[in-house]
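Lecture notes, part 5. Sequence design as translation. It can be helpful to think of inverse folding as translation between two languages: the language of shapes and the language of residues. The source text, in structure tokens, appears below.
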């Protein structure tokens, strides 16, 4: 089991307090008043930052509500045209048919086809270069400091050929290299130990992606051939994307959720 989840483990084993749902409800009800009090209290740059954050939250909420509301679209047709005389004020009018706009499921399928997924962790804290790299001093007097040692977990392909140590700028320690990940299938509710094919995107920086650095929120490609997934045309799916959900350098393993 990963670290830092002892509370969840205790809940699974022994259950929650009887008044836990009520305490949660009260806490959520108090949260509104707490945020309002905070908004009244802050001033200056902190107030600007808070207002910017609240504006983004409200905009996201409005978009979500608008997306879930099915609106009615109107289209003109002449199916219900009356035979015979029509009053002058009705001459330019036509029949109107109402049609429901596309449901959310169809919208979601179209977005998936376009390559857009709703990832489990949409926002992650960016990792600074100071945290990612450690300066390695070289030279007889240890005056040169152009080398960097990667302090996070990395993925290195089997075909990778290392440069001569003298000319290598980024050093990826062997102890922090990983080739397998624990990938959870969200629909099957099962976890599999799969081989990593490559790092698709690290949200912190394109340089981290090229180096194969794996941090929380990174999209990796895993080999799912042993799961037996098949496309609609009958071909076996070989590689699929998954998002890393833990901090591998702290837990010593990579946990990810498959993007289906």
């Amino acid at each position: 089991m990963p670290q830092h989840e002892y509370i969840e483990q205790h809940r699974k084993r022994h259950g929650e307090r009887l008044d836990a749902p009520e305490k949660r409800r009260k806490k959520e009800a108090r949260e509104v008043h707490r945020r309002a009090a905070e908004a009244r209290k802050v001033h200056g740059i902190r107030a600007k930052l808070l207002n910017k954050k609240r504006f983004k939250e409200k905009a996201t909420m409005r978009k979500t509500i608008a997306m879930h509301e099915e609106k009615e679209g109107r289209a003109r047709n002449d199916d219900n045209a009356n035979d015979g005389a029509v009053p002058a004020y009705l001459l330019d009018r036509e029949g109107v048919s109402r049609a429901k706009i596309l449901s959310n499921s169809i919208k979601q399928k179209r977005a998936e086809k376009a390559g857009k997924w709703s990832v489990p962790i949409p926002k992650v804290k960016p990792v600074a270069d100071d945290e990612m790299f450690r300066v390695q001093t070289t030279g007889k007097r240890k005056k040169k400091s152009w080398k960097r040692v990667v302090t996070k977990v990395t993925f290195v392909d089997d075909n990778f050929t290392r440069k001569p140590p003298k000319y290598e700028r980024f050093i990826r320690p062997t102890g922090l290299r990983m080739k397998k990940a624990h990938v959870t299938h969200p629909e099957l509710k099962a976890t599999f130990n799969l081989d990593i094919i490559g790092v698709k995107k690290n949200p912190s920086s394109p340089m981290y992606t090229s180096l194969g650095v794996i941090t929380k929120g990174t999209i990796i490609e895993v080999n799912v051939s042993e799961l037996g997934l098949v496309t609609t045309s009958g071909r076996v799916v070989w590689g699929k994307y998954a998002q890393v959900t833990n901090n591998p350098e702290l837990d010593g393993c990579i946990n990810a959720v498959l993007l289906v």
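The translated text above is only one of many valid answers, since several sequences can fold into similar shapes. The beta strands are 72-77, 95-100, 133-138, 144-150, 170-171, 180-185, 190-201, 219-223, 239-244, 255-258.
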